[in-house]
């Protein structure tokens, strides 16, 4: 039996982390790893001993030392992670942020709903889409 896919959640807000993890567990058997800031995310992604995620859910509003856009830039620069799907999952949707995220290689930009039930359903659907429906390149799928 193959190992379950790994999702890396990069989220510094404990409440959003808890809700996201709970929603992901409702519809997937994925292994969920959590990074609480940009440096922790990069340390996880660039460490050869860690399972490479099939999906990165990335908050943009991380501590300023290494914000979400910088994490995204570095993901796209690294050969190991350049094709890994990255979904921006954030509370803000300013046009300048949306544009910057797509220019740096985001695969999707999703604004977090304020309502708990809507948030849970949206995260559940994200997990299903990116792990079940979406066709990934073999270099990402087979990790």
Protein architecture, described:
By secondary structure, the protein is an alpha/beta fold. The protein has helices at residues 14-27, 38-45, 68-77, 95-103, 116-133, 138-141, and strands spanning 6-10, 31-35, 55-58, 86-90, 108-111. The chain has a five-stranded parallel β-sheet, sandwiched between helices. Helix 1 (14-27) packs across helix 5 (116-133) and helix 2 packs parallel to helix 3 (68-77). The longest helix has 18 residues, at 116-133. The model has no long low-confidence stretch (mean pLDDT 90).
Quick synopsis:
The chain has 143 residues and is α/β, with parallel strands linked by helices.
Question: What is the second-level CATH architecture?
Answer: 3-Layer(aba) Sandwich
In CATH, the topology is named Rossmann fold
Shape: globular
Total count of strands: 5
Largest sheet: 5 strands, parallel
C-alpha end-to-end distance? 14 Å
CATH class: Alpha Beta
Q: Could you tell me the radius of gyration in angstroms?
A: 14 Å
Query: Helix fraction?
Result: 40-55%
The low-pLDDT segments are none
Total discrete domains: 1
Order of helices and strands: EHEHEHEHEHH
Q: Looking at this structure, what is the CATH superfamily?
A: Response regulator
Cross-sheet strand order for the largest sheet: 2-1-3-4-5
Residues in β-strands, percent: 15-25%
Q: Mean of residue pLDDT?
A: 90
